[in-house]
Structure formats: structure tokens, C-alpha cells
Design a protein that fits this description.
Layout lengths: L2 E7 L3 E8 L2 E9 L9 E10 L4 E5 L6 E4 L10 H4 L16 E8 L8 E3 L4 E2 L3 E4 L5 E3 L6 H11 L8 E4 L8 H23 L13 H8 L5 E6 L2 H14 L1 H4 L2 E3 L12 H7 L4 E3 L5 E6 L4 E6 L9 H23 L3 E6 L6 H15 L6 E6 L5 E5 L6 H5 L15 H18 L4 E6 L1 H8 L3 H11 L2 E6 L8 E5 L1
Parallel strand pairs: 1-13, 11-12, 13-14, 17-18, 21-22
Antiparallel strand pairs: 1-2, 2-3, 4-5, 4-7, 5-6, 7-8, 9-10, 10-12, 15-16, 16-17, 18-20, 19-20, 21-23
């Protein structure tokens, strides 16, 4: 698999596109005014404890109070008696209102929900993750060879003490002792700075802030074979070059500054792909389509055959469309960064073997995704239920806002419906107030319909109430807006 990163930098925004085999697979966007909070460490203040929810709200100087569940509170705060119980201890025994507590953000604020917090603090570097509240050395499960796991544990165990431990990341497989030592010392220095800021009771800003997007992707895109990394900002290119020389030396050779006149995101048609990722409907090459609806509770994906009629029979057509859809679904989940509960409504299949092969195809396609996921089999209703870990907002939530016209419904009242609402409003106002005539202010399409298509209804209403009704166009009104004014 050939991978390439395109990094587009402006003073207000950084965007990163991951291209695999010439096709856009992931887009990451970070705006300076709305930088992601995941990984940031704060000295927060408990402002409310909710025993019924086994949670607390913590003020970390954001617009919304952050959420800390009892299960996310580090075990060092739990008594020995509570440790023997399998149940999560009562939140009131762990924190109290007014208490200052060091917390880390594990999920950005999403919609109406505040950030999700934990007291299990971790700080990541290239090869290691520091755990200030632990005392052991852990090895990534993806490092499978027993001898390599033992070697890494022997190297890192001397750096662990009663106050801090380390997790060895997947990228450390085959790495020498010097590199691991460098990471351990670096992370210790970082944590010392955090403790200094904590002593100063620094509550207005983060005790520790994770790397910005451009640096973070170079640190985290572990295991992906990157042939080239192009950056269109000379300043950022120089900064990233220094960063890679120190922390990710194997990437230094593939980095290059892109000075081209053509915008970097026009390469591989990235800009157009981003626009298509905001559409509800995705067309498949065969003529079928995906309909993707994102709600606060879940995301639903419906597959349709469209114009694809197949060559042999309907069952083959349905099977081939569903197989093609699995590849598109996996890509769209990554591209749009959709998380949480996902319900996929494949086209109904009667053949049990076809169902098994479609499910296997979806699982295989999702293996390219770095984000944790799980897939259940077909339910009794023929739906596939799956989950994908959600730690940041989706592409749609970052780039779009709720429609002012439809308030997020996704549709508008028809012109005819609005016209009839206006006629009813005139009758209501006429019964409630004494007036000589009415003026209706409405959008262009509605006012034209009132004086043309609904002319007879309007004339009959004038006769019914015995008063004149005048229609006036307001070009600034949307289709659902109108005013009925008494004169």
C-alpha cells in the first residue's frame, strides 16, 4: 500500500490528507481557534457531583463543564476495600465539590456534550507512553513476538519507579536502547513541567497541551508506509524537519516542501473529495448508492441498487452491490470520521453464504482503519450493527453548521404548505382583532404562488372575511418565513 501525506497550512487552519494508492482516505482539520482538546491535561475544579449518574462535572475553563465518570477515576484514589469489589465505587467517595483534580481530556466536546475526562493521565512520545499514576512497564499487544516483548520490557523497566511507568508503543518494535532511553527522558521532563505548573495552581490554561495537528500525524501514523510527505508552508516544513530528525528520523527523507502554484489539495482531487464527503448520497461505480444519515444518537447507512441490474439474476445483483458497498462504507467512515453506533442496512439477501461473505468483506475493509471498531453479525431485521471509537468531531460537524432555514430537519415546507399556513393565519388574526385590511410579507416563491396558483383561494378568503388582502415580496425571507400585518 502506497501512502502519501499532504499538509496544507494557513495561519488560521491546518489540514492533512492521507492518500492511499492515489485515493483520499482520511482528512484531518484543525483550526487555530478551535484546536482539539484530546490529550490536554488540566487542573480542574469539581463543580457538581451526580451520584445518580456516578459522575461529576469538572470546570476546566471551557464553555461547557467537562464530564468525569467514576470508572474513569484512577485506581490510586480508590481504597483497598473498594478495590476488592467488582463494582465501581460511589462517586462521592472519590471526589467532592470544590476539589481541585488533575484530569486529561479523552473525548472532545461533541454537540451539546462537554469534554470527557479521565484521571488516568498518559503522555505520548514516538516510542513510549508515560503513565504518571502507574509503576509498571507494559508492551503493546501488537508486538507479538515473545523475545521482542521481553527485550523491550528489559530495556524500559529500569526507567519505571513507584511514581511512573511506561507503555511501549508498536513503533518501538526493533528499536534500539538509545532511542527508548531518549523518549523516556523526554517524557520525564515533560511531566516535571506539568507538576511545576500544578504547584502554581495553573487553572486558566492547560498544564500540558498535545502537539498541533501537523506534528501529531507524524507521530501517530505509525505502521503506514509513507512514500512522500508534502508540506506547502516553508515555516512548517522547517519545523517538521527538526521534529522528525529528533523523534521520527525515518520520515525525514520522504518530507518535501511543496512550492507549486497549484494548491496542494488540488492534487489527487482532495478538495472535491471533501465536498463529496459532505453529501448525503454516495454513488457507487456500479450505479448503486449509499445514503448516509448522521444523527446525534447514531449513523445509519442504507444501500440501494439504483441502476445496477446485473447480468444473471437479482440475487447476484444484490450480492455484488453489497460487496462493493462494504469498501465504500469503510472508506466513508474514515473519511468522514464517523463514530459511535453505526447501523448498516444492506440490501436483503436470502443466501446465508452471501451474508457471510458480505460481513467478511466489511471486516476486511475496516482493517485498514487505525480507529478501534467492532462489527456484529446480521440482526433478525437484516441490519448490521457496528461501533467505531469516537474521540473527535466528524468532518461534517467541523465544516458545517445547522441550517438556519430548516433547523437541521434536512427538508423545507413546500410552497403550497406555507401558502395554506398564511391563509389560516389571516383567518385566526381576523377573528382575534378588528382591522380593515391585511398585508402578507413572504418570500419570492410563496408570494408568487399566492397571486398565481392560489389566486382563487386568496380571492375567496377576501370575500369570506370581507377585507382586502395584499401580498408583498420580501426577497430576504426564506421559503418558510412570512408575516401577516394588520392595517
Amino acid at each position: 500500500m502506497n501512502g502519501e501525506l499532504l499538509i496544507n497550512v494557513t495561519p488560521s487552519e491546518t489540514r492533512v490528507a492521507l492518500i492511499e494508492n492515489g485515493v483520499l482516505q482520511e482528512v484531518h482539520v484543525e483550526r487555530e481557534a478551535r484546536r482539539g482538546l484530546v490529550g490536554n491535561i488540566y487542573l480542574g475544579k469539581v463543580i457538581r457531583v451526580l451520584p445518580g449518574m456516578q459522575a461529576a462535572f469538572v470546570d476546566i475553563n471551557l464553555d461547557k463543564a467537562a464530564f468525569l465518570h467514576a470508572s474513569d477515576i484512577n485506581s490510586t484514589l480508590i481504597t483497598n476495600e473498594e478495590k476488592t469489589s467488582e463494582q465501581v465505587p460511589d462517586i462521592r467517595s472519590l471526589v467532592h465539590e470544590g476539589q481541585h483534580i488533575v484530569v486529561q481530556v479523552v473525548k472532545d466536546p461533541l454537540g451539546t456534550k462537554g469534554a470527557r475526562l479521565t484521571t488516568d493521565i498518559t503522555v505520548a512520545a514516538r516510542y513510549l507512553v508515560l503513565m504518571p499514576n502507574a509503576s509498571h512497564a507494559g508492551i503493546s499487544q501488537r508486538i507479538e513476538e515473545a523475545s521482542e516483548r521481553a527485550r523491550l520490557k528489559d530495556i524500559i523497566t529500569p526507567y519505571c519507579d513507584e511514581n511512573q511507568g511506561f507503555i511501549v508503543r508498536t513503533a518501538a518494535e526493533g528499536v534500539g536502547e538509545d532511542e527508548l532511553k531518549h523518549d523516556a527522558e523526554f517524557l520525564r521532563r515533560v511531566w516535571s513541567k506539568v507538576l511545576e505548573r500544578k504547584k502554581r495552581k495553573q487553572t486558566k490554561v492547560a498544564l500540558y497541551q498535545d502537539l498541533s495537528l501537523a506534528f501529531r500525524v507524524l507521530r501517530d501514523f505509525v505502521g503506514i508506509s509513507l512514500e512522500r510527505i508534502r508540506i506547502d508552508s516553508k515555516l512548517t516544513f522547517d519545523q517538521l524537519s527538526e521534529f522528525t530528525k529528533e523523534f521520527v528520523p525515518e520520515l525525514t527523507a520522504v518530507m518535501e516542501y511543496y512550492p507549486g502554484e497549484r494548491p496542494i489539495f488540488d492534487l489527487f482531487d482532495v478538495e472535491n473529495e471533501i465536498q463529496r464527503a459532505l453529501h448525503r448520497k454516495i454513488t457507487l461505480k456500479s450505479g448503486g448508492s449509499l445514503i448516509i444519515d448522521q444523527t446525534e444518537a447514531m449513523t445509519t447507512i442504507d444501500i440501494n441498487t439504483g441502476a445496477f441490474v446485473g447480468h444473471r439474476n437479482l440475487e447476484e445483483t444484490i450480492f455484488n452491490t453489497n460487496i462493493e458497498a462494504t469498501q465504500a462504507i469503510a472508506r466513508q467512515l474514515r473519511l468522514r470520521n464517523l463514530g459511535g453506533i453505526i447501523i448498516v442496512d444492506f440490501i436483503d439477501m436470502s443466501d446465508a453464504d452471501h451474508k457471510r461473505r458480505v460481513l467478511h468483506s466489511l471486516e476486511a475493509a475496516m482493517l485498514k482503519d487505525k480507529v478501534k471498531f467492532s462489527i456484529s453479525g446480521f440482526s433478525a431485521l437484516g441490519l448490521v450493527e457496528m461501533t467505531r471509537k469516537r474521540t473527535r468531531e466528524s468532518l461534517e460537524h467541523i465544516l458545517c453548521s445547522e441550517c438556519d432555514v430548516c433547523s437541521g430537519r434536512g427538508n423545507l415546507k413546500t410552497v403550497e404548505t406555507v401558502c395554506y399556513e398564511i391563509l389560516r393565519e389571516i383567518v385566526r388574526v381576523n377573528r382575534a382583532y378588528d382591522t380593515d385590511k391585511f398585508i402578507v410579507y413572504a418570500s419570492t416563491s410563496v408570494s408568487e404562488s399566492l397571486v398565481n396558483d392560489e389566486f382563487h383561494n386568496l380571492a375567496e378568503l377576501e370575500v369570506f372575511i370581507g377585507k382586502q388582502i395584499k401580498v408583498q415580496t420580501e426577497t430576504m425571507y426564506n421559503q418558510e418565513q412570512f408575516d401577516v400585518v394588520m392595517m
